[in-house]
Amino acid sequence: MSKIFEYNALWEYQAGDSAVPDDPASLVVPTDDWLGPEPAPFGDVVGDIVEYPAATSWTAGTGLWLRRAITLDVASDILLSGTMDNHCYFFLDGFYVGAINPSGVQRTGLPPWNLIIPSYLATAGTHELAVLCQDEPSAPGSSTTYFFAEAEVLPPVFPLWPRAPMSEILEWLTDVIIAEDSTEDRAQMRLTPRQSLDMSFYVPPLYQQALKNLIWSNRARQWLVPFWPHVQHLGEVEAGEWSLTVPTNFVDFRASGLALIWQAPDAFQIVGVDQVPNATTITLNQPTQGYSDAYVMPLRRGFMPNDPVRRFDGRKVSVQTTFVIEENRQLTVSAPTQYQGNDIYFDVGLLDGDGLDESMTTSFDLLDEALGRVAYSTPWPHNRPRRPHKMLGDGLEEGWAIRRWLHRRAGRLRAFWQPSFEADLIPVSTGALTTTLNVRSDGYLLHAADRTHIAIETPSGWLAREITAAGPVSDDVVELTLNASLAIDASVIGRVSWLGLWRMDADRVEINWIGGQVCSATVPVLELQP
Fold first, then answer.
1. Which of 288, 336, 510, 522 is deepest in the core (most CB within 10 A)?
2. What burial class does residue 74 get, using C-beta atoms within 10 Å of its C-beta: 0-12 exposed, 13-18 middle, 19+ buried?
3. pLDDT computed for residue 142 by the predictor
4. Termini Cα distance of the chain
5. Measured between alpha carbons, how far is 237 from 176 in angstroms, rounded to an integer?
6. Helix (H, G, I), strand (E, B), or coil: what is residue 369?
7. pLDDT-derived band of residue 271, with 50, 70 and 90 as boundaries?
8. Are residues 118 and 221 located together in one domain of the fold?
9. Domain membership flag for residue 332
10. Average pLDDT, the chain
11. Residues 282 and 212 reside in one and the same domain
12. Residue 183 CA from chain centroid, whole number
């Protein structure tokens, strides 16, 4: 990464028009009457709402022209980034190259932005970069102005399409303190999960030398990493488009982020995303180049934490590498159905191979002096089952549902109720059921009377109930009294499962992208309360 100028760079400036232009490309950059230079940020911001206070005044409700020179040793793609309120238009040597919020719609806050100037414009030599910043007139005291920009040589893109399968890793960090009686105090230590991609690539012969040079030069530098799990087909893309029609509901496109339009390892374009206004559109900060058959996906900054491995035999080449994503975020997921103050889910996990292995864990104190007798005990009132929970997502929507579930859990932080999905109690009642249910005893009163939450499967869904009392009807039958009426006929019961309060037993989750946008994730879950 090579900085061209920082946020507090010096700019020449002069007053400009504040009305949104009908055709920004027709604007003419002034040639005289420039003032300064003065340092950025420029603005009129009320209160402590920005990271960098305004250094040079810019009156609210007006326009402001800025310009400065940039010098490049070689032709380079340039990444411009910064913060802007409310809209601006960029010019390189007088040529219109892009805009932030070009429609001028009023926006709340001070959103960041990214814009790319391609290398065929940013050639070696000195160039004039000019910006028209605008803030439309409004009531006194109701508007703010703010602008700064930074420029750097665009980090390289790892341009190959990975082979399936590939792994996406999410890592939270939970501090879990377990008391002697097994109660827990859990704290979220990392607000956003760390995200990484573990991928392997076949390198076509045409690109072997270029990729070798790219890795040699940039091993320890920042990369732009395509998020291949969310790649979508665009087809033909006409040059000069300022938006892309593509599903966005279940894809991690981000306003003010970056996206990659990709056709081949040597035919792609990096674009700044202005907005994601609806479920079918992303608007861009600059026009598209033309492509006959392209794909699009989110693009993230990242780095290689470990040495990439390039395997070659004189003809075939492949690369195995891991990228850690730097632009992480914690999804805000609304609470699902609640049961006794915690989330409850009735989504059945998949069997792992031929079945599931469940272990029974406890705090086991063993006193053994190796001389004869031993003593052992546990301070925990209940043992804890531990088992894998496997999820499969067929397509982007189901994959997004898995992602939301994982973010709602935040690793080991947030507990949830879930049935065992086994036939743990065998009902023997007949006819209409209200607040009592007779079941086969199976040692319930002797061994499992502390299990007081059950889930009952019916054709219309699962019913969660708490057992408030239990007593024998005969040697083989136990009557359970429930906290609420079932209001069903006994004949419709599919199964009666234990309902437990669980949490994930790991902060690291691996999502395995199998191919065709099918993914799976297997997480260990631990029961906290029966």
1. 288
2. exposed
3. 56
4. 53
5. 50
6. coil
7. very high
8. no
9. no
10. 93
11. yes
12. 31
Q: What is the pLDDT of residues 282-339, one digit of tens each?
A: 999 999 999 999 999 999 999 999 999 999 988 899 999 999 999 999 999 999 999 9
| CB atoms closer than 10 angstroms to residue 27 | 17
CA torsion sign, 274 to 108 to 191 to 386?
Answer: negative
- Output the six-digit token pair for 346: 């009735």
For residue 18, pLDDT beyond 80: yes
Shared-domain flag, residues 283 and 316:
yes
Q: What size, in residues, is the chain?
A: 530
Digit-coded pLDDT (tens) for 212-244:
999 999 999 999 999 999 999 999 999 999 999
Residue 372 has pLDDT above 90, yes or no: no
Domain boundary among 325, 359, 379: 325
pLDDT at 369: 82
Q: CA–CA separation, 274 vs 285, rounded Å?
A: 5
Q: How far lies 229's CA from each of 250, 282, 516, in Å?
A: 11, 18, 9
DSSP state of 192: S
Same domain, 113 and 247: no
Same domain, 32 and 122: yes
Count up the domains in the chain and report the number: 4
Find the angle CA(36)-CA(41)-CA(45) to the nearest 5 degrees: 120
Instruction: In whole angstroms, give the CA distance from residue 223 to residue 1.
Output: 9
Pick the closest to residue 305 from 195, 211, 151, 457 (CA basis).
195
Range of the structural domain that residue 442 is part of: 432-494
CA distance 527 to 478: 25
Instruction: Evaluate whether residue 109 is within a structural domain.
Output: yes
The span from the CA of 329 to the CA of 139, in Å, is: 36
Q: What's the farthest any 2 CA atoms get from each other in the chain?
A: 101
Q: Is the dihedral of CA 262, 267, 273, 276 positive or negative?
A: negative
286 belongs to a structural domain: yes
Structure-block tokens of residue 197:
């991609």
Same domain, 226 and 246: yes
Structural domain ending residue among the three candidates 92, 126, 153: 153
Q: Do 194 and 171 meet the contact criterion of CB atoms below 8 Å apart?
A: yes
Domain co-membership, 147 together with 32: yes
Decide: 437 and 427 in contact? Cβ < 8 Å. Answer: yes
Q: For a pLDDT cut of 70, what percent of the chain falls above it?
A: 98
Q: Give the pLDDT band (50/70/90) at residue 138.
A: low
**Alpha carbons 172 and 508: distance in angstroms, whole number:** 6
pLDDT per residue as tens digits for the range 401-431: 999 999 999 999 999 999 999 999 999 999 9
pLDDT at 139 over 60: no
Domain containing 109 — which CATH number?
A: 2.60.120.260
Is 234 part of any domain? yes
Q: Give CA–CA dist 157/175, Å, rounded.
A: 36
For β-strands 174-178 and 258-264, DSSP reports them as: unpaired
Q: Residue for token digits 């091993």? A: 219
